[in-house]
Amino acid sequence: MNIISKIQDKIVSADLTILAALKKMDEVKSKLLFVFNEEVFDCLLTIGDIQRAIIRNVELTESVSTILDRQKIYAYEGEPIEEIKKVMFRENIDCMPVLDSERRIVDILYWADIFQQSVTATRKKLDLPVVIMAGGKGTRLKPLTNVIPKPLIPVGDKTILEIIMDQFEEIGCRKFYMSVNYKSDMMRFYIDNLEHHYDIEFFEEPKPLGTIGSVSLLKGKINTPFFVSNCDSINEQDYRDVYDYHCENHNDMTIVTMVKSFQIPYGVIETGEDGLMVSLKEKPEQTHMVNTGVYILNPECIDEIPDGEFFHITDLMEKVKARGGRVGCFPVSEHAWHDMGEWREYLKMIQVL
Asked: CB neighbours (10 Å) of residue 182?
């Protein structure tokens, strides 16, 4: 089997739209694609290229040729393998095509085949506090949540709470603050009896305070940027990328968003004066950014949360924007986010993970 046949499902043309490329990545479960101009290799397209384009507000209907990073590093036939490995390690390159003098792919080196540790493990650790919002009743998952709190619902051989905390620990975040209310005694008992010890400081809402209101109880405790995560979704994104974006853009607050596409199953007509038809679009597709429930907040944001009042994260977003603050959005693909807010989503999640 030649090298091209091995990557056939990941080959796309340069005129493919950005949205179609994002869907292709989800379909083949890959964070990169090989872009060809006819029979000639052009460039690698990564999920990072697409995320940066979305952040720059590039239309998703644009072709991928407009966002390709042609400064990417490639290896060439005849280069010593040890030199190629050094470059891959230094630059954290997960996939290295090896090209001949005519830019034909003659081999592909993958990080996983060369190094024992994962590419994510070589990145600098990020030691930031993480606030877990674990006090909700999970009413949409009743009757299961009549018995156990939503954060303790199993996904495979772990609870969703452990999966979320393990993901943060993997990138270096060790200190957790956990907002609890509903069935808090059960939460504490379960976590205290885990074999793995998490560094958790519980804080309890005296009453339901909304999706961010209880964080007012942490005033004076956190003096660095920090993550906030809900307890009903799992995100495959490396949150160090989100933090880099947060810092580089001097955001006060960053929302991790999911790119969600909806196709309207009808012909959509636009009308003008006197009800005359202006245009017709057959089954158009709309794309929106959806809140995934994960955020980075600067510590000053805590002071903007009123004490003891019911206050949603959306209220904080509006408050920060009203004072001229920066609320950024970092996009992830639809299939990189797994939600269990309702029964249908939970059943889908346990089939995928």
From this structure: 18
Give the Cα separation of 287 and 298 in Å (integer): 29
Mean pLDDT, the chain cut into blocks of 10 residues (353 residues total) = 83 94 92 90 94 93 93 93 92 91 90 79 88 82 77 86 94 95 87 91 90 95 96 89 96 95 84 87 84 96 94 97 96 84 60 56
Task: Give the C-alpha separation, 136 to 143, whole Å.
Answer: 14
Q: What share of the chain is helix, strand, coil (3-state, %, to 5)?
A: 35, 30, 35
Question: 44: Cβ–Cβ under 8 A, 6 or more apart, which residues?
Answer: 32, 33, 34, 35, 72, 95, 97
3-state SS record for 97-146:
EEECCCCCEEEEEEHHHHCCCCCHHHCCCCCCCEEEECCCCCHHHCCHHH
Region class of 342: left (phi > 0), else alpha (psi between -120 and 50), else beta: beta
Q: Are 307 and 297 in contact (CB under 8 A)?
A: no
Per-residue pLDDT at 341 = 64
Q: What is the pTM of this model?
A: 0.86
pLDDT recorded at residue 295: 98
Report the C-alpha gap between 86 and 118 in whole angstroms. 15
**pLDDT (0 to 100) of residue 338:** 81
- Cα 214 from chain centroid (whole Å): 24
Segment 3-7 long-range contacts (CB within 8 Å, at least 24 positions apart) = 3/105, 3/106, 3/107, 3/108, 4/105, 6/108, 7/34, 7/105, 7/108
> Which string of b and e fits 70-81 if b means at least 16 CB within 10 Å?
eeeebbeeeeee
Task: Copy the structure tokens of residue 21.
Answer: 């490329």
